[in-house]
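Q: For a teaching session next week I want to show students how multiple molecules come together into a single three-dimensional assembly. I've collected the sequence lines for a complex. Could you give me the predicted structure tokens for the whole thing so I can convert them for display?
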Amino acid sequence: MAIADSTRLLVTAPDQGRRRKRTKIPLTPGERRNLRLARALLWPALIVAILITQVPFVVTIYYSFQTWNLQRPRDRGFAGLENYVDVLTNGAFFSSLWATVLIVGSSAVISLVVGMALAMLLDRKFFGRGLARTLLITPFLMMPAASALIWKWSMLDNDAGMVNWVLGLIGISPIAWNTSLPILTVIITLAWQYTPFMMLILLAGLQSQPQDVLEAASVDGAGPVRTFFSMTLPHLRQYVELAVLLGVILMLQVFDPVNIMTKGTGGTKTMAYLLYERAFIGSDIGEASAYGVLTVIVTIVVATIALRTLFKMLKVEGDLR
Amino acid sequence: MTQHSNRRRVVVGAAVLASGALLASCAGAGGGAGGGGGEDGVTTLTLATVNNPQMVDMQELAPKFEAEHPDIKIKFVQMEENDLRDKVTADISTDGGQYDIMTIGSYEAPIWAANGWLADLTDYAGDADYDVDDLMPPVRDALTVDDSLYAVPFYAESSFLMYNKEILDEAGIEVSDRPTWDEVAEAARAVADDDTAGICLRGKPGWGEVFAPLTTVVNTFGGQWYDENWDAQVDGEGFTEAVQFYTDLVKDAGESDPVSYGFTECLNLFTQGDAAFWYDATSAAGSVESPELSDVAGKIGYAHAPVNKTDESGWLFAWNLAVPESSQNKDAAWEFMNWATSKEYIKLVGEELGWSRVPPGSRQSTYEIPEYQDEAGAFAGLTKDIMLAVDPAQPGVDPQPYVGIQYVTIPEFQDVGNQVSQQVADVFAGRSSVEDALAAGQKVAQDAGDAQK
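A: Of course. Below is the structure for the complete assembly, covering every listed component.
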């Protein structure tokens, strides 16, 4: 009942969304009661969600204003903004921010390009397509710790790893991945795991292309390359942006490859690993909480800017409203 | 009954339901993980331990303990050393109550005992059957604060040099019983080639990984972490020389990819016969000499830890079992700890799993068992001699304000050691010079030193 009524309202008063003024939508008493019931049924879930996500967050903010080192339990007290000043001046925060941007940005770009290529290949029918698609999706389904361990021991190991063996076949001497190229090591592991994610989203985008438009383009004489750049890519723009946004949000939490392979050396100390180090090895809860709060602030800023840009793009793409 | 109060009732009811569900789930989780359970009188103890071979053996033999004590069940939680430390520290300092028995090192034990976090075991250990005087004196001293014993050793170790006699005989190199670091470096450089590392030395970042052997090298080269006034000496001459020597040796004759190599990785490399020398813990010998675990069993020679300016340079470390003060199951926990660190357990391991896998270094009587001397003769006598000869109060050339050989017995050392080890990793990779790395390390160490003054 309530749904049909809201549709009626949208059809008869379609401009309600665009106007910034809060004009009251007239509701009948029956509709009002239904709406109230609907909201009341949502309250338990909403309250649990708020408690579970906000209580730890508020407690973290509280801890960030305290000096509390687990190793010195007696020296606990209010510290004001001291933790934040320490964090912003000791240089580790910004270099860690840069490391996160570098690693996440590179992995996102690489997995996007490779994902695009794989999606193009999967877009046509061929024998064994279902099997190929399943195999290609598998890396994303692995647990990050398991994939980091496999890369560390089977693939990138200096003496016994497959990558060095293949390089040996073409005459390149074995590379000490972890010691000499730690950032690349982490990027390889991350990109490998997130390529299927990008591939799936882009595949959906490719398969949603209207076939008749593509046929018309080929009738007009456009070759495959021209079709790709002039027709497919603009269509895929929304999907690319969505994939990148979601992928980046997931990759920002990268911890397993750093912890298992490089232990934060060589410029791979991402924000998540830095926070872990300060909290569990440094045992400094106050400082680690300050790092956590700052990370959240940075993520919110980045996400807001990205989302604003994304929605602007979406609107331009021919929204109904 | 107005609409308004009806609605308020629904909201309040929903809030109560939600909070109730939340609290119930929290309480359930706390009770379950608390480790004490009175169901049918069976107490389940949760034991946190490191995943070293001796602990894996203990888990394998635990069913024998459970058969003798039907009212106690043991749940093992095995972790890598760094992870174990993090979790156990977080748990005990916040009264988490997750673990009934903790495996802690000689580093943590005196600090935590001083904080009042560990249960006093003096009365339990005073039992005549336990024979507390049989425990190795230096190991026992590390666990005693104000004449009270706070943990019991499961196994203890020092460090020594292991070498593959086959590889060295082929090259015609002889190793003396008390080598110097210069001799070892020369020999390692001579035998190193593309397939075989001259020497395997730890490089993995971590205060207990790379800095265990590296600190002993620092000590014997005349350097130290702190002088008597708690001024950091990380950029001092001895420390710099030692780190330069260590990193150069690894670059020239050591394993490739040193940042990945900790104890386990070096053990793999050495037992596969791909390294000529290995300077590491005496407890590794058990695995090296075991035919099931090693390809080179029976081909290894042992020597004292190489020295430079001192007479001995082995480290001293023990993995011990302790009970948190807040635990509700101290008696049951002591039953297990008694069993696991007793003379009978040592005989049990020897008979069931092989005498070379016996947990070494905890009791003096272990070294008098004839079967142990037969099978482990190659390294057991040497281990005992080294452990009784090292001096934790002054292992280096100059005096130091704390007791400990390869670590500094202050709570901040975990952090300091970890950060400096990451700088050293940059040196291994060629991204930084030794001087720059140690200059950065000096700052970190000095902050911690100032906190002690």
